[in-house]
Amino acid sequence: MGNPAFPNIDTIRYEGPSGGPLSFKHYQADEIVAGKTMREHLRFSVAYWHTFRNPLSDPFGAGTAVRPWDDGSDSVENARNRVRVAFEFFEKLGIEFYAFHDRDVAPEAEDLPRTNRILDDVVETLKAEQDRTGVKLLWGTACLFNHPRYLHGAATSCNADIFAWAAAQVKKALEVAHELNSEGFVFWGGREGYATLLNTDLKRELEHLAKFLHLAVDYKNKIGFGGQFYIEPKPKEPTKHQYDSDVAACLNFLRQFDLLAHFKINVETNHATLAGHTMHHEMEAAAAAGALGSIDANTGDLMLGWDTDQFPTDLYLTTQCMLTILDQGGLAPGGVNFDAKVRRESFTPEDLFHAHIAGMDAFARGLKIAAAIRDDGQLKQFVDRRYRSWNQGIGARIESGDITLEELEAYIVEKGQPDPNESGRQEMLEALINHYI
Ligand code: XLS
Ligand code: NI
Ligand code: NI
């Protein structure tokens, strides 16, 4: 173990609301909330790409990130050293999971066999660090969007050789995930979409994507990898239209191609808002189908139309996330992955700590607020009462399917005008949530 990368930063501890800036004000890993420890509820994860590979460049300017441990080279030594730094970071924050793309952790060489050998070298270090610290891989994934070969997409490329390369890359990434005992594996559709329909056979591309995912499921079973598969919706960026545009589109795709039994959804906040939905909507849509698997916890800027991947600090957002998560009894084997990057102006190593602390505290508060709302019970009582006509009589018959249109007609002719509807009380309920926040 070399010199610490963050020599001036101690392990971050809970110090309560009046603690210093490098402490948790709300996140206390072992505190019990709603019957479980905060660590069990939240399962925080660091995104390797944003935290250790993002130079903080933007379309108008070079990277600004100061990362003294990184020599900027593509050497294996640098990649392995970065792993040690990453685990020092996870340990100091008390974060128990991380996530990466194959190309985040190890550089690509001239051909696939050499690339895979380099990856193996780095995986050896990842494994040793996982064993040393107990930190686990929440999910792995294959980067099928960065290299120029993927300019027309990967699984949905017009060129079958590119599909083959991507498949080989996923094969290796699955082996690595298995080797590292990963809790899961994500497929985000990178460049699986189109820039113009004029050159695109949409039907064929969708079929290829399904074929690709089936091949991955087969290989997962073949090697005995037990991690959960996820698909991560995003409507645009980099393409004009991504096939995995939102939760509903993903669920439809998975159902159409007989994949729903093998996948859950990894919902990302900034992707939800780019799709014109709230995170809460997307999480509820996935949960309603029994398919809410994990979340990429970030936030966008509603004034900006792109994926800004900011750290989540809005308590309404984290409260809504935690209400849905508590309702479904937890996220495991998924977790709360900070797919988020510090702002270009927040370029120091210390900012990486402030950002994660801010996100963790915001989720800790969201958890406590959501637990209090559920304990109090008023919200649930209101909703239950709102649907009470379905619990017996005609409502129960409709729900059970034991009724015809003729019977419904006869029922309502006899009954006459229904009772006036009741108020939805939106403002009262919004005030109720405010009361807990
Ligand atoms: C990009 C996605 C990506 C996935 C993993 O917008 O969020 O980071 O989470 O490939
Ligand atoms: Ni993501
Ligand atoms: Ni994203």
Overview of this protein structure:
This protein is an alpha/beta fold and 437 residues long. It is 46% helix and 11% strand. It has helices at residues 38-42, 48-53, 76-93, 102-105, 112-133, 160-179, 202-223, 247-256, 269-274, 279-288, 315-327, 349-376, 378-386, 393-400, 405-415, 426-436, and strands at 32-33, 36-37, 44-47, 97-101, 136-141, 184-188, 193-194, 228-232, 241-242, 263-268, 292-296, 336-338. α11 links the parallel β11 (292-296) and β12. α6 (160-179) runs parallel beside α7, α10 packs parallel to α11 (315-327) and α11 (315-327) packs across α12. It is globular. Bound molecules: D-xylose (XLS) and nickel (II) ion (NI) (2 copies).
Task: Please mark out the parts with pLDDT under 50 across 5 or more consecutive residues, or reply none.
Answer: none
Radius of gyration: 24 Å
* Count of DSSP H/I helices: 16
Q: Beta-strand level of the residues, as a percent range? A: 5-15%
Q: What's the order of the H and E elements? A: EEHEHHEHHEHEEHEEHEHHEHEHHHHH
Q: Categorize the overall geometry.
A: globular
How does the major sheet shape up? 8 strands, parallel
- Let me know the number of strands: 12
CATH architecture level-2 label of the largest domain? Alpha-Beta Barrel
**Count of domains:** 2
If strands are numbered along the chain, what order do they take across the biggest sheet?
A: 5-4-3-12-11-10-8-6
Beginning-to-end CA distance, first to last residue: 44 Å
User: What name does CATH use for the topology of the largest domain?
Assistant: TIM Barrel
Which bin fits the share of residues in helices? 40-55%
Overall average pLDDT: 97
